[in-house]
């Protein structure tokens, strides 16, 4: 099958009209919406050395599948496709499969396209209570919920989120139900206003009495400076969760991490069923994060908007 898609050749992103979608017996999905996230922006700066069709946040409708019961269903899809044979897969770590492909990130074309293919086991049906615009957020919301899966959070904990962007907002909306105190450290007035409208406390700077205050600090800035701020905020023997994927090297003094015996946890993808249920039950509010919807033809404007410091979520509508 040939269709329109956005193709990244390692230097620039362009619209092509003859993209070939061919993955054998995998399920064919027509994409309704695809979200632009921080990782996509980093890919255009060289992250992961990806070449092909980017994009990994999507909602679509199944058009072709071996299982006829899937045809016509609205779905979202987990982005890691495992081999099922390596040592990681055998111990249940399929998201860390040694031979995995990752939708729009590693070895597999993604969702900035009219169509994509994924294995049936990667797809999850979207309940009727969740709109298409909300369903696009399942993947990043699952990543936010992964923090709760990875850490044991005491209800007496103090937590901080460093960053005020798309993922940081979702993380804050999740964490506020699990800790005694939560504060978001950001620098973009409009994004902070959105968080405040959700009832989340925000600030733009670290005061002296806030240093070493927090049991858990989540770094979600997409910038090297975010880790430095997280190290300042976390208490001795506290935990820093790293969410940023940055196309570059960190240059930072890690001596305080050693001296204060700080635990650093990398955190990436999460499970989809809890994210779908969280959206269905309206536990988080995602619609107010959408700042624009663009057709593929207007991808330059869409990516410029997504990269703007004051923008939250931009969607593409193939």
Question: What does this protein structure show overall?
Answer:
- Helices cover 25% and strands 30% of the residues.
- By secondary structure, the chain is of the alpha/beta class.
- The chain folds into two domains: 2-137 and 286-317, Medium-chain alcohol dehydrogenases, catalytic domain (Quinone Oxidoreductase, Chain A, domain 1, Alpha-Beta Complex); 144-266, NAD(P)-binding Rossmann-like Domain (Rossmann fold).
- The strands form four sheets. Strands 3, 4, 5, 9, 10, 17 and 18 form a seven-stranded mixed sheet that branches. The chain has a six-stranded parallel sheet with strand order 13-12-11-14-15-16, sandwiched between helices.
- Strand 1 (2-8) and strand 2 form a beta hairpin.
- Helix 4 (138-150) packs across helix 5 and helix 4 packs across helix 9.
- The chain is globular.
- The mean pLDDT is 95.
Task: Please provide a brief summary of the model.
By secondary structure, the chain is an alpha/beta fold.
Question: How are the secondary structure elements laid out?
Answer:
Layout: E1 2-8, E2 13-20, E3 27-36, H1 38-43, E4 57-64, E5 74-77, E6 80-81, H2 87-90, E7 101-103, E8 107-108, E9 115-118, E10 123-125, H3 132-135, H4 138-150, E11 158-162, H5 166-175, E12 181-185, H6 189-197, E13 201-203, E14 214-219, H7 224-233, E15 234-242, H8 255-259, E16 263-266, H9 272-280, E17 290-295, H10 299-307, E18 313-317
Parallel strand pairs: 7-8, 11-12, 11-14, 12-13, 14-15, 15-16, 17-18
Antiparallel strand pairs: 1-2, 3-4, 3-9, 3-18, 4-5, 5-10, 6-7
Helix pairs in contact: 4-5, 4-9
